[in-house]
Automatic annotation (TrEMBL):
Protein name: Cytochrome c oxidase assembly factor 5
Keyword Disulfide bond annotated: yes
BP GO terms, sorted: mitochondrial respiratory chain complex IV assembly
GO cellular component, one term: mitochondrion
Function summary: Involved in an early step of the mitochondrial complex IV assembly process.
A Pfam entry, by short name: Pet191_N
Keywords in alphabetical order: Disulfide bond
Keyword Disulfide bond: yes
InterPro entries noted in UniProt: Cyt_c_oxidase_assmbl_Pet191
Source organism superkingdom: Eukaryota
Protein family membership: Belongs to the PET191 family.
Length: 82
């Protein structure tokens, strides 16, 4: 899995951009996208083992990051993620 930290710059500078990029790379490197030629959105809905559990954990982290942007209690603590 690729981690975007340090000196690397992403084109997207939004709050959850790093988690989104990691989720995207995880899905694109999975067997579901590579061998079965499915879309990443279709791969997230499958539970047949062709997508690693790490991708599902990143999906949950991305959801929590996006939800923390809307939650007023979490605004002062910053977005969850890395």
């Amino acid at each position: 899995m690729m981690r975007y930290e340090g000196t690397q710059k992403l084109a997207d500078e939004s709050a959850c951009a790093r988690v989104r990029a990691d989720l995207k790379m995880c899905l694109l490197q999975s067997d579901c996208c590579k061998k079965e030629r499915k879309l990443p959105r279709e791969c997230l809905s499958r539970q047949d083992g062709s997508v690693p559990d790490e991708c599902f954990a990143l999906r949950n982290t991305f959801f929590e990051c996006k939800r923390s942007l809307l939650d007023n209690r979490q605004r002062f603590r910053g977005p969850k993620g890395y």
